[in-house]
User: Which sequence fits this backbone?
């Protein structure tokens, strides 16, 4: 922890860092319209092509264009697993760390660590999502928090959006961001009503950023993730730099290693040691996570417990 920070600010910085860990898209014409020659000495106003509203592709078409720009649907369909490593830097907070991710068909395990903050683990196996961090400990994730954990592990949200979202909408026109860059904003809505705004470069169709409100035990926090430094790896364009921008600080994740269709240890995906976990609604079946820790049936417990034997009464004199 940074020693020169006042105590309340140190605590806030730790929580902010953990929340962030939770846890790596005219030229005006003035010529005269055909057949409408102006009267000599008179300037005739002609509607310019630039003033006409441009035809904007539908959101599903734009998402398909983004997938194509990143390498194509066939390439992503052929991706069964990946493993990645990244460095983390919080900038103003002065904290650095590392992150590793193992992914297979939607299941995943990620571990991030920063000295002074601690280690954050998050994983998913089938519909069981869990996390382990120094503040909340080991627990199962539910509702929007579980939804966000699942889609955030996607390598290409534009390709996987139907897996995690039920509705897509926008845009009516491109908007200017980041010093004039034109982007299309597409809103993705999850089954529980969570909304992610994905921005695509209007020219290249590559993802530029995405915004959402992160849900965690520390409270809700609006976040924007910026995608930068696209590089081609085995035919896929991947943003090697992601800048997570929150109201309190920024975390820059820089990919240093990524392997496609690499062997992954499936045992990492399952929630560990469920006996010590806080499990709201018993989301995780302990027997499926670790059969040795499964609770025994109550009848078996009773039959296996020996009944105390009564001592024989002494005969009366």
Assistant:
């Amino acid at each position: 922890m940074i020693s020169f920070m006042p105590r309340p600010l140190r605590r806030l910085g730790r929580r902010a860092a953990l929340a962030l860990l939770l846890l790596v898209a005219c030229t005006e014409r003035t010529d005269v319209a055909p057949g409408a020659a102006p009267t000599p000495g008179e300037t005739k106003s002609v509607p310019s092509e630039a003033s006409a509203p441009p035809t904007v592709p539908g959101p599903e078409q734009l998402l398909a264009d983004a997938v194509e720009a990143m390498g194509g649907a066939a390439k992503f369909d052929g991706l069964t697993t990946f493993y990645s490593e990244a460095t983390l830097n919080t900038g103003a907070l002065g904290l650095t760390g590392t992150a590793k991710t193992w992914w297979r068909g939607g299941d995943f395990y990620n571990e991030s660590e920063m000295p002074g903050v601690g280690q954050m683990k998050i994983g998913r196996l089938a519909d069981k999502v869990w996390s382990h961090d120094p503040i909340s400990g080991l627990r199962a994730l539910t509702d929007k928090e579980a939804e966000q954990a699942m889609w955030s592990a996607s390598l290409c949200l534009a390709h996987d959006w139907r897996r995690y979202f039920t509705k897509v909408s926008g845009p009516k026109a491109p908007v200017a961001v980041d010093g004039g860059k034109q982007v299309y904003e597409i809103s993705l809505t999850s089954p529980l009503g969570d909304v992610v705004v994905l921005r695509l470069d209007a020219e290249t169709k590559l993802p530029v950023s995405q915004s959402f409100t992160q849900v965690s035990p520390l409270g809700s926090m609006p976040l924007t993730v910026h995608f930068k430094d696209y590089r081609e790896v085995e035919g896929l364009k991947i943003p090697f730099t992601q800048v997570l921008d929150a109201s309190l600080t920024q975390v820059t994740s820089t990919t240093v290693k990524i392997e496609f269709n690499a062997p992954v240890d499936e045992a990492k995906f399952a929630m560990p040691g469920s006996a010590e976990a806080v499990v709201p609604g018993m989301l995780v079946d302990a027997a499926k996570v670790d059969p040795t820790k499964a609770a025994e049936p109550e009848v078996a417990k009773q039959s296996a417990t020996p009944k105390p034997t009564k001592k024989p009464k002494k005969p009366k004199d």
The first strand starts at residue 81 and ends at 89. The two ends are 78 Å apart (CA to CA). Helices lie at 7-21, 59-69, 73-77, 143-152, 157-164, 286-289, 298-304. Residues 7-23+58-282 form a domain with the outer membrane lipoprotein receptor (LolB), chain A fold (CATH 2.50.20.10).
